[in-house]
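Tutorial handout. Part one gives the primary structure; part two gives the three-dimensional structure as tokens.
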Amino acid sequence: MLGILYTLLSMLLGMEISRGILAEDQKKQKNTGNLLWVFLP
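Part two.
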């Protein structure tokens, strides 16, 4: 039970962190971000 909760929490944390990184990247370099979105499915 604790393992499942821990996994869910770490997944949510990772999503939030990557979302923040993506937002920062888009602010700093919009063109590169757009290129990345084209190549990533």
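Part three, for discussion. The CA atoms of residues 2 and 8 lie 10 Å apart. The helical segments are 2-28, 30-39.
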